[in-house]
Here is the input.
Amino acid sequence: MDIIAEITIVPIGIGVSLSKYVASVHSILEDTGLKVELHSNGTNIQGDYDVIMAALKKCHEKLHNEMDTPRVLTYMKIGSRTDKNKDMLDKAKTVRMHMEKNKSE
Amino acid sequence: MDIIAEITIVPIGIGVSLSKYVASVHSILEDTGLKVELHSNGTNIQGDYDVIMAALKKCHEKLHNEMDTPRVLTYMKIGSRTDKNKDMLDKAKTVRMHMEKNKSE
Amino acid sequence: MDIIAEITIVPIGIGVSLSKYVASVHSILEDTGLKVELHSNGTNIQGDYDVIMAALKKCHEKLHNEMDTPRVLTYMKIGSRTDKNKDMLDKAKTVRMHMEKNKSE
Amino acid sequence: MDIIAEITIVPIGIGVSLSKYVASVHSILEDTGLKVELHSNGTNIQGDYDVIMAALKKCHEKLHNEMDTPRVLTYMKIGSRTDKNKDMLDKAKTVRMHMEKNKSE
Here is the structure.
């Protein structure tokens, strides 16, 4: 099953600066070879459900076992659809196209 | 890896009334035999990461393949911790205990 | 505008045990007088959008100003509908009703 | 109170294609004049809490009153911090910097 997902991983109990930890888990997501998009509030990723879920598990495990993080919270969006195949990055493009159309009306 | 998760599944393209669909996928989560807690905005579930993720996949597949849902969005929280084992239902209890303590101070 | 919302507040940079902080902000939500439901992954609340958003702001401010929390993350779901009025606590009931119906079919 | 937020608005009951609706509410967020970043799973926005919450209310109202959407679900992340001022778009940059550093180690 192909999905478009968003993953936001929050390490808890390691202080206030999270970016080193976020970088480390973002690398795991990139290493899947899937399409990823890093933004200000998380990482978007498109591909096979099982591959993404296995990568996310690795992220939690790495934070716990290699980076001494006692607690990890992940916030995730998962979208699947059967009506059409859509590239993740085309979603924002389609929205922008509609915005242009609305302005010109 | 044991997790405490929250799953909110939103079927898209089947109209405005979602409860029949939500019931159907909540049953799949209950059928895992794991501890589940249905509330006004989702289902909490505690147990093994792989078991929960396999159940969630089944939810999407059932909505697509058996209930004609063209599009499914899931919102999920996933919490894991190594500092202690905690029963999901004790979380709200601990919060309430602190509330009582605050009131009596 | 009436909404049914879910609020999960995560204080960052104060260590691994969050329940004292969660209790404190849950009290602010209860003090609105609105219907609230505390569960294992957050607080559900039903009522006027402006009242809820003002209460949430107070939660962030209390954590920052009175409880020395350097960073606060909130995860929120907001639902509004015009097709019917529905009590928050009836949502889970309706889902359970559908589950009973499915079992008896 | 300044926040970095992510807003994902899901119109329910208007069919399976959401981009026209998403474009319409994204325009409301852009019209605040605040910094916004549209991505595959939502809109990031940085600025004053009250301004953002007022804009989000307008989004729900527009969908209900002008675009015949019976039901609207919003998923939101809200981050505030007192330890430093950070530009929203620098968050991804800092993460990337840490990734480069990790690779060279």
Observations:
- Chain D touches chain C at residues 1, 3, 13, 49-50, 53, 56-57, 60-61, 64, 70-83 (CB under 8 Å).
- The longest strand of chain D covers residues 2-12.
